[in-house]
Amino acid sequence: MIPAKFDYVKPASLADAVAALQQAGDDAKIIAGGQSLLPVLRLRMAAPSVVVDLGGIAELKGIREDGDKVVIGAMTPYYDILRDDLVKQHLTLLAQAVATVADNQVRHRGTLGGALAHADPAGDLGAPALVLDAEMVITGPGGTRTVAAADFFQGLFSTALGEADILTEIRFPKFTGWRTHYEKFNRTAQAWSMVAVGVALKIDGGTISEARVGLTNMGDRPLRATAVEQALVGQQATADVAKAAAAHAAEGTAAPSDADAAADYREHLARVLTGRAVLAAAG
Amino acid sequence: MTQIRVTVDGVEYADDVEPRMLLVYYLRERLGKTGTVVGCDTSNCGACTVHLNGQSVKSCSVLAVQADGAEVTTIEGIARDGQLHPVQQAFHDNHALQCGYCTPGMIMQAIDLLGDNPDPDEQEIREGLEGNLCRCTGYHNIVRAVQDAARRMKPGASADTPAPAAVAGGGQ
Amino acid sequence: MTTTAEPATPVSEIGRARTRKEDARLITGRTRWTDNITLNGMLHAAMVRSPVAHGRITSIDVSEAKKMPGVVAVFTGADLDSEQSGLPCAWPINAEATPPRHVSIAVDKVNFAGEIIAVVVARSAAEARDAVDAVEFDIEPLEPVIDLNDALTDRTVIHSELGTNKWVTFPFDSVAAGATSGPSADEVIAAAENDPDSVVVTRTWRQQRLIPAFMEPRSVVVDPTGEQLTVWSSTQIPHVLRTMLGVTLGLPEHKLRVIAPDVGGGFGGKLQVIPEEILTILVANKLRRPVKWTETRSESLVSGHHGRDQIQTVTIAAKKDGTFTALKFDFIADMGAYFGLFTPAVPVFGAFIGPAVYKFPAYKAVFTDVFTNKTPTDAYRGAGRPEATFAVERIVDELAAVLGRDPMDLRKQNWIKNTEFPYTNAGGLTYDSGNYEAATEKALELFDYEGLRREQEERRRNNDPVQLGIGISVFTEMCGLAPSRLLGALGAGAGGWEHAAIRMLPTGKVEVVTGSSAHGQGHETAWSQIVADKLGVPFEDVEVLHGDTQVSPKGMDTYGSRSLPVGGTAVVKCAEKVIEKAKKVAAHLLEADESDIDFAAGRFSVRGTDKGITIQEVVFATFLSHNFPEGVEPSLDSEYTFDPENFSFPHGTHLAAIEVDTETGKVHLRKYVCVDDIGSVVNPLIAEGQIHGGLAQGIAQALYEEANYDEQGTLVNGTFVDYTLPSAADLPSFITDRTETPATTNPLGVKGVGEAGTIASTPAIVNGVLDAIRHLGVEHVEMPCTAQRVWRAIQEAEQQGGAQ
């Protein structure tokens, strides 16, 4: 219940934060909202010697428009994302996924950047980030770079972030007018996703002109269901089309088997939920 | 040790704390605010819910050092001038508690929920409380209480304005 | 709910939906949980627990831990063994053998993962926790015994002194017990198997392992610095604990004070003498300093006792016309590694109530208690009765399916009719009263049974991906523990009485002392209502005292839905004694003959006159004792210890409308109706609350909860992340109602209510799940009926060719 001892640093600038991480070496942990980190520390599944709090860096928080992009600061809490007009207008899939994360209290504290950097395969933000072509802006000892979501997630709790790297903001192209839905399946309301599916469709005159489908917890990282996407494009968004396309949902996945669900059941869920998500998105 | 300044239930405190100290232990052990309790170690149960700068948080999932400069409201700071908060009153009137252990967190979350949505339907109440576990009531009367509180708090009155200093130190 | 204006004439307090006195402190945070206690010089204990389920301790090195900052002492089993004695088992069931010694701290061998192997004491809880990590130990693993059937092979024996993992086989046979005459259940079943006019249905299924999961983690504070050794504990049983500490540790009972302050739920989980209580006492005594231990949630889930965990084989025999002819249970029950207070008795509790609401001419129940290398099991809400009720209510549904009968009609055909009470069931219990017809009729109406059956048909016809099922459970249970003589006959180590005392204070206020120690049940309110009525004093003038052996010296505590039928009756009887005493004083003061004095609504009056005196005036006159009848003790204070003559038998009809998404297997509880008959009701608000909470726990067993162990004996879902308690978002509102058939065995006419909802609801839900998908060929889904399990059951049935 009580974390092991650690030193605490709360830098006021990004440069100081990177310096603090460099100084601490591989034994440091970044705390953003802390909603994943603190339970881990309390159960003593991790015992870093230094915790670097990004809460003092004002520039990491907030949502802004940058030309054809919506830029979300890594330290922006879920709650703020849910209430933001830019998100409501251009990134509905993100809002739909964020609304399903944990509970109200956690959404007040938990941050988009924290979730993406944590890279829990059952987390609900990875698939939308992938579907929405998010770009991760990373600042580290070597300066600032941008990594596409597709390259960012590298495995179980593993990302492109290096030891002293900080995810500073997430840049999303606008998906204005896209029809989206995030379909989450879990054991209890508060539980992590057993499987979830995020769908974004561009529908022109009743025909799906572009389709993007992302899967949560169907591998060690969020995945795109490209075969489903291909099967949808050029089709009418009917129940039959959705079902036929959804039959491809488990292709190329590597669903885990655990106490919650076996891989074959997850694959089945991925197909069912994809069909439902497509129909729900198409409205 | 790190120094923090926190306002809790209207009273300002300055303390040196170990960075690893959770906000809930700071409240309980340093300030004696034992009205806020600990029910789990994975931030599932919500028994420790307080308001941090006006928003509900699980005080077991916030470090005391993260609350530096913040305003915290606990179950002990929501009654005013000897009057129970309408949500407290509604919990009593609707028998929304039995053992009472989850109650402080449940009430604090209910207040937050009504602040965001003053007129929630049953499903919205249930989802708004999904981060708070109760083992006694089956939630039935808790939902009734929140519905009742919503009626009482209409119209106008903000669900959670900062607590005045006068009631710090415990509800009456 | 708004408070209505007081009517001019006094209303009866009993039966009134009073809001609770207890709430004032609980809703404002002015609570008195054990973990809130801080004493001068208090130290903090933390436990080092074995990660290994079965093994020999080959070394423990505490030298590094002792050097850690703030650490005062570290103790191992070797340090404490000579003093720790063994934890008590009050009801071994088996008179032939001695239960294995249940150590509080392991000495050379561990028998479950979570067992304590060292105690760290430090100046702060954080320092104690840090030092836990610094204790180094080696445990040489032995083959863990996890599976019940495997345990019965005795391939590996856990307690070598027993020579076997099987503790006892307890048989109940209705013929041998004299509860039925005629052929035995075995004979009836054997004959029915060869009888073309009969049918026999046998099924085997599991009662999964559950965790009580009270919200307040357990906590113990021991202060050895006073005249008495004071123990605060988050326990359901301060009185039993005090006596047991005397018996087991040899502590002089009069030098022990046990306090259960505010206790945050129990559900049987705090009906225990726990290793941590013993160890906190031992180390506090050694160090001569107050010591506190408070568990973490993950510690609680792995080390607090678990519940249920049985493999049940159930057989029902019936005539083709639906008449039940025999019922047979063969249950294998998991004890875990050791016995707690009631571990071996819990399954056996189901023996007597097995026949439930039905007239079985023959009945047999065999219980085999088995040790495994898992956390000990013991009482969890319902204790033995949910298991038996599940078995009978599930098998009746299976029989209905085999016979092609409406499951409710089949129940009606076989239940005990209202005109047949009192009725002795095939388990040997005499049900004093009941009206299954009335409760069922009301429930069916509230539920819209016919309408939902039509919808079910329609969904089946349309091959709707979401199928509808109707789950039925018509239950009764035995509670209000318990007639002492009966407990004695069954080998229990305690009686089942309850104690009350009433103190009449000079100003007319009243203190009521109860031995029934509440932890959420609202005794302070309900007892106040009873006393207000019986003494004719205002509700507000009554204070209920409990949970501290110094204030309430005598009691058997709270479990088994006993508080109101037993403890409440003690309060009634005690109040009657007060009135008897006061009547003598009133007669003297009114200068009348005692036989001419009437008492009503707080006033003693001389029959046929307008002369009278209030009870408060009598109390004050007694306090003065200036003008007092000769030879009469100048006190109205009274005590009463009530021993019930029988159990109480609440019953009810529970109906669940269950939607099953056949594509994913997900179960949605759409509607839940229950009509319970808990006899007369003292406080409908509180009674209804007990039902709600009971329902949630029973539904959670059916759908959500299960303690899972891996092959190594590790509890794999030992946090609230994966031991999935339902939240508000996972449950519906409940439609509850009551019928009132008063119990005839206590003056209040009440029956217990605490466990009824849990006992009844689990089979209702599972029957509903099955009813939704039976037409697809599914006969059973193990609990909890998770989406994955339901989906697999449908897949397997489809592969086997669907419905026959």
TrEMBL record, chain A:
Domain of life: Bacteria
Keyword line: FAD, Flavoprotein, Oxidoreductase
SMART domains given in the database record: CO_deh_flav_C (SM01092)
Stored Gene3D superfamilies: 3.30.465.10, CO dehydrogenase flavoprotein, C-terminal domain, Uridine Diphospho-n-acetylenolpyruvylglucosamine Reductase, domain 2
Ranges where the FAD-binding PCMH-type domain occurs: 1-177
An example Gene Ontology molecular-function term: oxidoreductase activity
SUPFAM superfamilies xref list: CO dehydrogenase flavoprotein C-terminal domain-like, FAD-binding/transporter-associated domain-like
Short name of one Pfam family: CO_deh_flav_C
PROSITE patterns listed in its UniProt record: FAD_PCMH
Coiled-coil ranges from the UniProt annotation: none
Name of the protein in question: Carbon-monoxide dehydrogenase medium subunit
Protein's organism: Pseudonocardia thermophila
UniProtKB/TrEMBL annotation, chain B:
MF (Gene Ontology): 2 iron, 2 sulfur cluster binding; metal ion binding; oxidoreductase activity
Pfam families xref list: Fer2 (PF00111), Fer2_2 (PF01799)
Location of the region described as Disordered in the Swiss-Prot/TrEMBL record: 153-172
UniProt superkingdom: Bacteria
Pathway(s) served: Alkaloid degradation; nicotine degradation
Biased composition regions of type Low complexity, renumbered to the chain: 155-172
Alphabetically ordered keywords of this record: 2Fe-2S, Iron, Iron-sulfur, Metal-binding, Oxidoreductase
GTP-binding is among the record's keywords: no
InterPro entries with a match to the protein in the record: 2Fe-2S-bd (IPR002888), 2Fe-2S-bd_dom_sf (IPR036884), 2Fe-2S_ferredoxin-like_sf (IPR036010), 2Fe-2S_ferredoxin-type (IPR001041), Beta-grasp_dom_sf (IPR012675), Diverse_Oxidoreductases (IPR051452)
Domain 2Fe-2S ferredoxin-type: 2-78
Listed name of the protein: Carbon-monoxide dehydrogenase small subunit
Organism: Pseudonocardia thermophila
Automatic annotation (TrEMBL), chain C:
GO molecular function ontology, one term from the record: iron ion binding
Ranges that cross the membrane: none
Residues in the signal sequence: none
Superkingdom classification of source: Bacteria
Pfam families: Ald_Xan_dh_C (PF01315), MoCoBD_1 (PF02738), MoCoBD_2 (PF20256)
Residues in Aldehyde oxidase/xanthine dehydrogenase a/b hammerhead domain copies: 28-143
InterPro entries: Ald_Oxase/Xan_DH_a/b, Ald_Oxase/Xan_DH_a/b_sf, Ald_Oxase/xanthine_DH-like, AldOxase/xan_DH_MoCoBD1, AldOxase/xan_DH_MoCoBD2, AldOxase/xan_DH_Mopterin-bd_sf
UniProt KW keywords: Molybdenum, Oxidoreductase
Entry cofactors: Mo-molybdopterin cytosine dinucleotide
PANTHER family: ALDEHYDE OXIDASE 1-RELATED, XANTHINE DEHYDROGENASE
Protein name as annotated: Carbon-monoxide dehydrogenase large subunit
Organism: Pseudonocardia thermophila
